[in-house]
């Protein structure tokens, strides 16, 4: 998981949210941006799952479809970065072209807070969409770091994010679009498995 480790080591600090005030003594209704909650088809718990359980989020069939295998608990990243998110990683078979790895993380924070760590993001591949009905954000690090990989954060419950990262092999032969497309596919597979687990 070298690419994932490099990417996590390059995480930027989350910026402080600006707050405003009003001189009116009359209470005003909350704006939609602060009062609306994300719409999800269900709440899926990932926070607190150990990395061994995260290794079950890509079934053998899904691994075959994504072209990866050899699930490995990714506690090494946690020790290296101190981020503390349990994870599991899968690699393409030796000699497979193009080589890449997929890592799934259980993130005990909101998708916005988690994905804000990639700020400033690479604008060409930054996107918002849904994964099986769950709000999701996609981003790569900007500042010429986009080739380290692509992260998709899926809002699975209040204060819980399923993070799915795809990092290219050392030769970096995948385009940014292909890296992010693979991350989205992996996120869709992991969410499908998580929903099937109940």
Folded structure, characterized:
It is a single chain. By secondary structure, the protein is of the alpha+beta class. It has one domain (2-6, 44-196): 3-Layer(aba) Sandwich (Protein Transport Mog1p, Chain A), CATH 3.40.1000. Helix content is 28%, strand content 23%. The chain contains 7 helices and 7 strands. Strands 1-2-3-7-6-5-4 form a 7-stranded antiparallel sheet, sandwiched between helices. A hairpin with a 2-residue loop joins strand 6 and strand 7. It is globular, with a radius of gyration of 17 Å. The two termini are 29 Å apart.
Rg from C-alpha positions? Answer: 17 Å
Provide mean pLDDT, rounded.
79
Order of helices and strands: HHHHEHEEHEEEEH
Strand content: 15-25%
DSSP helix fraction? 25-40%
In CATH terms, what is the architecture?
Answer: 3-Layer(aba) Sandwich
List the domain count as a whole number: 1
Q: Biggest sheet: strands, sense, closure? A: 7 strands, antiparallel
Low-confidence stretches: 1-35, 77-83
Question: What structural class do helix, strand and pairing data support?
Answer: alpha+beta
CATH class: Alpha Beta
Please state how the strands of the largest beta sheet are arranged side by side. Answer: 1-2-3-7-6-5-4
């Amino acid at each position: 998981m070298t690419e994932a480790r490099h990417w996590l080591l390059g995480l930027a600090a989350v910026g402080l949210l600006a707050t405003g005030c009003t001189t009116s003594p009359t209470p005003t209704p909350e704006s939609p941006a602060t009062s609306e909650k994300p719409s999800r088809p269900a709440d899926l718990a990932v926070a607190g799952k150990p990395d061994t359980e995260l290794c079950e989020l890509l079934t053998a069939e899904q691994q075959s479809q994504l072209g990866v295998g050899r699930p490995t608990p990714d506690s090494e990243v946690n020790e290296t970065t101190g981020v503390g998110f349990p994870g599991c990683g899968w690699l393409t078979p030796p000699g497979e072209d193009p080589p890449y790895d997929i890592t799934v993380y259980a993130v005990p924070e909101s998708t916005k807070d988690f994905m804000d760590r990639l700020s400033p993001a690479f604008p060409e591949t930054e996107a918002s969409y849904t994964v099986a009905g769950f709000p999701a954000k996609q981003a790569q690090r900007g500042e010429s770091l986009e080739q380290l990989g692509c992260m998709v954060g899926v809002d699975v419950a209040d204060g819980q994010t399923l993070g799915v990262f795809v990092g290219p092999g050392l030769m970096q032969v995948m385009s940014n679009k292909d890296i992010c497309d693979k991350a989205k596919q992996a996120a869709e597979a992991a969410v499908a498995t998580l929903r099937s687990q109940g």
